[in-house]
Amino acid sequence: MSASGTEPPLVPGDRPSAAHCHALRVRLPAGTSADDVAAALSEAVRAWWPQDAPERLPRLWTERTPATAGALRAELYRPVAPGSRLRAVLFTGPGPGAETELVLTAHRADLDMASLRLVADVLLGRVPADRPRPLRPDWPGPRPSPPSRPDGDHAGPAAWAEGDPTAGTDTATLAVPVPATGGAGLDPALLVVATAVVQARYEGVERPVIGVLTVLPGRPESALGPFEGNVLVPVDVGGGRPAELVDRARQAITAPQAWCDPSTYAELTSGGHRVRAGVLAVPGGAGRQGPDGLPTVLPCLAGTFDLTLVPDRGAGGEDVLTVHHRLAEIDAGSAARFARHVVTAYTRLAAPAPEDRPAVALDIDLLDGAEREQLVRAGGPATTPEWPPYRLDEAFARQAARRPDAVALVCEGDSITYRELDSRAERMAVGLLAQGVTPGERVGLCLGRSPDLVVAMLAVLKADAVYVPMDPAHPADRLAYTAEDAGLRLVVTDVDALPATSARAVRPDEVAAAGADGTLAPPGRGPGEAAYVIYTSGSTGRPKGVVVPHRNVVALIDATREDFGLGPDDTWTLFHSSAFDFSVWEIWGPLLTGGSLVVVPYWVSRSPGEFRDLLVERRVSVLSQTPSAFAQLIEADRGHGRPLSLRLVVFGGEPLDTRVLRTWFDRYPESACRLVNMFGITETTVHVTAQTVTRREVLAGSRSVGPALPGWYLYVLDERGRPVPFGAPGEIHVGGAGVALEYLNRPELTAERFLPDPFRGGRMYRSGDRGRLWPDGRLEHLGRLDNQVKIRGFRIELDEIRNVLLDDPAVTAAAVLVAGEGAQDAAAARIDAYVVLDGDDTAAVRGRAATLLPEYMLPATVTALPALPLTANGKLDTRRLPAPAAVRRPPAPAAAVQDPPTARRHSRGPSAELSAQLAEVWEAVLGVPVGPDDNFFSLGGNSLYAVRVAAAMSARRLPALPMRELYLHPTVRRLARALAPAAEA
Amino acid sequence: MTAPRTGLLAGKAALITGAARGIGRTCATAFAREGADVLLLDAAGPVAGVPYRSGSASQLDHTAALCRDLGATVLVRQADIRDPGALRDAAREAHQRFGRIDVLVNNAGIAAPSGRAVHQYDEDEWEVMLDINLTGTWRGIRAVADYMTRQRGGSIVNVASTAGLVGYRHFAGYVASKHGVVGLTKAAALDLAPLGIRVNALCPGSVRDAPEAEGLMLSEIARALEIPVAEHEATFVRDQPTNELVEPDSIAEAAVWLASDRSRQMTGSVLTVDGGFTSR
């Protein structure tokens, strides 16, 4: 129990530690003799610690200089030497009668604050020197660690703040007034809960664990020793009533059950959330400032935690919350915001009238009117542009009238001028009317990337109808679904066998022929009416149609025209499927700014090398790409002599990993080609934000998607629709010029997702995406709130895939996962399905799904299980799922054992030789065994892997692999046969 | 305000030997200006066997006053670096007062007895030169190394000389001792690097006797060589490519940098501030 001089210091590394030291300042009566104080101290410490070597005992340091603010502050914030029990410094001014100040500092592991007061009382003669007794506490549990994380780790970078990685262990301090208490002192238990409420909001956690420094109950009054220790208080912000939370925190502070030790720490933070914030709650140990504004009681010289919150009393007796923040994790602005919000939460929790207190923690609104206003303003550009209310076809017509002979479209050697495009579209529009199309009617366009597609889009609009793009590459059932859901009577298509629906299929040339002689009346519908409907993946298991009006697209192009310098000199590409809304941007971008549009044939779009050649040949200047596709283009471009003519690349469709751009910038500096990362949603008309990416962003690993486009507004809101503080995660809502009209024929879903904009009027779209907004208006995109994922730019609802699998009569349970998503290799991302099955024919399951799902949504693997593993909570336990199995047909007797006769006959020919080589290449690229009849795509192959197969084949001097051939002949045997003549040649 | 003072050395505590005047004083005030607290040590009185006037207690107090004016907390210790106990006590005192020791500037040293050929020194003259300049430097390292080890950090700046890199006629003892300091620096750097302690040598060229720093090195050397100070000064100015003598402030700036975290990856190095003299 008694102190021992050999007691090892508790601080790891024996470093002087400001965080674990506290200080007390006492003014002595004028004229106090320094020698008397020195003698009193010397006598007292010899009595208290007789076993200490004399030169190690505390002595009085006398500074015969005035106790200036600078000198006092330096002394108060100076940690004691490790191993020193106490430091006592007396400032006596040079002249007689000068003010005399005594500063006592100690390490918390040696003397607590009550001990320091006792020492001061002895030196002031208020207490006899033989009254205090040095004692080590008899702790009720495991020996407490020093008041910090036992493992010395900090919680790591705070996502809601900007840390300075070079700051080391430096801390800074700020103070926020707490007017609500009326100077009665801050209640530590309330402060703990208020801190937890704010941390929960900032970090999206349900049950933050707050470190609380408190004192051993029943501390002997006259003891000298370390009686302060840390407890960890989990605060169930998501669950408990605030009053209960405060009671529990008070219990933990005043009657601590478990002191913080490594095992408690590990147990309480096992969810992965480390302790971010600590509250100093030593009863009677709050900080205090003297009339000079300098501390008289300084509970800690620096913070132990990333954020250490200390109740304090200001010079005028007002309550103040002092916050120490580690600069490595949290910048001053963010710390001040956090502190202000803690004070707000505290004020609400401490409301005098019980009925004014929040019923649940979520009731607490952290923001005041001014801050809410600031948040709303930050989400949109300062000035709101006024868009001329044009229809798309009108806006196009203005360009056509201005430069009728400029090239509008280029496709494989053919080019079409604005005038020709306009007249062909007009002819087809008349043809559509002749087919009975009425204003506002939806017309399907099931056309590949071709001039016909663009002509038909324009024609539908000129006919005052609404186009519904349908990708001919999609499975028949999906196309049929789209036709039914959109209520199509007419589908313009060049696909021979459109699936059986009630819609009538007509060829583009038929429509044009029907409209050869007629004339067109001006459309009656305004720019606020629907222009197109694009179907997106839906969590209900069925895609949903997003209805977008004319004016949104016109606003989108107007919002970017000036900043991106879009104009007649630009050449764009039509690269993406018309069913993917990135193509809306690609098509209308040039057509509304006088540029020309190069139509990229499907097979070229699948082959980065051929695509690169096309970009060079056509001198394309504006390119829109998903980051995955662009990564392939960078690879294809490497080592080519003739550089691209690009001046602007727009990324969209999926999060951008900027790392791949370093090599790009080496070849194409920012000054020559601007890269812009745009975040967007179909429901808000392609894009929402724009972030120019330079080497600076690449090196900083920036995740910003930039501020909102002019006319678009961002709000990051909590589940109650309130703005969340800057840097805190919330759901992204988008208001302004891009908000779509509705989900077609889904009034309930529309009402759920398209909400009134309470901040600026109009409507806003609730995106289901998580994000955080920064004070400068930049948005950081954090992914989805639900099961939606993006693979190679495609928006995919896993629930939709799961529903398709469950529709299979043989499937009784299903789970769908994305694998390899975090990998650097975009090609590795794939969808794995697990099914509980009658029988074992997973190939049949996948085959059926393939009739309903587009290729990018089709699971690469389907693994049959006797049952899906579940967690205790009944959720899918993904950790217990086995590694996925490649899709296999049930073994057919002959095929499994030996090649069928036909194959054997070929075994002496060149195609068998090629087969063997191809199988090796596929196995190397896909990492799975490959049989002669295994489908490339069933084995997990995708467009990225296809590119690698082509590269590997060319490295082995095998025949060139046009992408088209691989898609047409997706097995080793068939591909070898298709390529064999080339090999023989 | 957890860092009440600012500067390159804010929050650091430094022990500076030979602080009464000259380079020691200039270093002390530069450190104080950069936010360090300092313990100033000097023999501050006649040193047996040294034929010229050493720094005085009054000069040491004046250095302390200059540092206090700059906001530093200052401890003053009058001690001869040939007394191992005195150095150890000084280090302990600095540690107790400041809570830490981050920097040692091993500056104390003598330039004479000198002024004769190598074989003409007697035992005592040779002994006092090496005892103060070389062994004294080692004693300083020994006194602070334990504190710095426990802190896992520290910077030791050994003030050597261009005489630690090249020879000078009639200065064999001084040259030998300063070459010894350079060698000691490198060996100590290797021993202490794993403990987080850096050791570097600073080699001033011919430093002007600045009146405000009360340094006397140049004139004492002239006296040892039995030539007029003005002539000696002119010779050195001629020999330095920059055509001027080195100012004490330039040495102090280099010492601040070596003491600061800015030079955190530098140890065992020799930093020359000699107007290009040794580049010839």
TrEMBL record, chain A:
GO terms for molecular function: phosphopantetheine binding. Residues 137-149 have a biased composition (Pro residues). It comes from the Bacteria. Keywords: Phosphopantetheine, Phosphoprotein. InterPro entries: AA_adenyl_dom, ACP-like_sf, AMP-bd_C, AMP-bd_C_sf, AMP-binding_CS, AMP-dep_synth/lig_dom, ANL_N_sf, PKS_PP-bd. One of its GO terms (cellular component) is cytosol. GO terms for biological process: amino acid activation for nonribosomal peptide biosynthetic process; antibiotic biosynthetic process; secondary metabolite biosynthetic process. Residues 129-172, 883-912 are annotated as: Disordered. SMART domains: PKS_PP (SM00823). Residues 909-983 form the Carrier domain. SUPFAM superfamilies: Acetyl-CoA synthetase-like (SSF56801), ACP-like (SSF47336). PROSITE patterns: AMP_BINDING, CARRIER. Residues 883-897 have a biased composition (Low complexity). This is Carrier domain-containing protein. It comes from Streptomyces fuscichromogenes. The lineage of its organism: Bacteria, Bacillati, Actinomycetota, Actinomycetes, Kitasatosporales.
From TrEMBL, chain B:
The keyword Lipid biosynthesis does not apply. Keywords: Oxidoreductase. InterPro entries: NAD(P)-bd_dom_sf, Sc_DH/Rdtase_CS, SDR_fam. GO terms for molecular function: oxidoreductase activity, acting on the CH-OH group of donors, NAD or NADP as acceptor. It holds the Pfam family adh_short_C2. Belongs to the short-chain dehydrogenases/reductases (SDR) family. This is 3-ketoacyl-ACP reductase. It comes from Streptomyces fuscichromogenes.
